[in-house]
Amino acid sequence: MMPPLKRIAEYIRATDNFLITTHVAPDGDALGSMFAMAEILAILGKHAVMFNESGLPDRFAWIGSGQTILTELPAAEPDVIIVLDCGDRERAGTAILPWLGSKPVINIDHHLANPLFGTLNWVEQRTSSVGELVGRLAQELGIPLVGMLGQYIYLALISDTGNFCFNNTRPETLEMAAEILRMGLLPGPFHEHRQSTGTLNQLQMRGTVLQEARLYADGRIGLISFSRDLFERTSTGPEDTEGLVNAVLYIQDVQVAISVREEEQGIKFSLRSKGSINVQAVAASFGGGGHRNAAGGILDVDMESAQNSLVQAVTKAIHEAL
């Protein structure tokens, strides 16, 4: 049987009208992959629109070169939908679900337990990021990782590998990054754009959260929390919490970091772990998902109940990993 990469490349060559989407509240891998796919299709002379019902987060306003992400479905229906970085179809949001059930879907992902919901599925759990898969697709189509395409792929790579510090950083990942640098990307200006997007309010909010961090399970679990009251007092929001859970892993002896955040639909939780501790299994037990060392989900309970349940489940996972 033809490998998924080649099947998808052939399908794209033979099709002209696409809609590209990714999960709601998109992160760097989701956005980098989506913009990169749009760039690939434009180079091939295809028509494509990008859709995400959450839109473009403010912290990523520096990318995109004026390209538009639609927050409402277009009037003209696409021939094919490309879904990126979604562990299941529901992660793409509610608005697009009817189309995902009625149109051809190309599903490109790297999450554990992806149910292969697409017409064509390319899911590689060991790959660092969906951006790395999209980069390989560009190479298969004979498109060099240069200019904006290279920047988009590089954003995806560094976002899901923690700047190449996580265990999902493979030789192939670094080889793709090196190719992008050979094609002209300068890491210094790129990181200046990426990192210089904050405000004093955001910095102070994040400082407050870290000051109130707590330890559990004899210091092996670190927990931070974001309340709606804190967001109101500091004029910040959920989008300003991105990545802070990783800082908790800097604490000596902490093996799992937990972040809990009050949102309208419930308590959003994020889990990060070191070594062999499988937080994806913990998240899945609460209806969430993700990767072995990075996962999350939403709990329909109050903040205190969410914290207690997560600490208990993570403590059990740590004991099982011993």
Q: Any overview of this molecule?
A:
The chain is α/β, with parallel strands linked by helices. The chain contains twelve helices and twelve strands. The strands form two sheets. A six-stranded parallel beta sheet has the order 3-2-1-4-5-6. The chain has a six-stranded mixed beta sheet with strand order 7-8-9-10-12-11. Strand 11 and strand 12 form a beta hairpin. Helix 5 packs antiparallel against helix 6 (171-182). It is globular and about 55 Å long. The termini are far apart.
- The fourth-level CATH homologous superfamily of the largest domain is inorganic pyrophosphatase (n-terminal core)
N-to-C CA distance:
41 Å
Highest-level CATH class of the largest domain: Alpha Beta
Task: Tell me the total number of β-strands.
Answer: 12
What is the averaged pLDDT score?
Answer: 95
Structural class: alpha/beta
**The biggest beta sheet, please?**
6 strands, parallel
Rg for CA atoms:
20 Å
Order of helices and strands: HEHEEEHEEHHHHHEEHHEEHEEH
Which fold name is given in CATH as the topology of the largest domain?
Answer: inorganic pyrophosphatase (n-terminal core)
Q: Any guess at the CATH architecture of the largest domain?
A: Alpha-Beta Complex
Can you count the helices? 12
Short key terms for the protein model shown above:
39% helix, inorganic pyrophosphatase (n-terminal core), 19% strand, Diaminopimelate Epimerase, Chain A, domain 1, six-stranded parallel sheet, 322 residues, alpha/beta
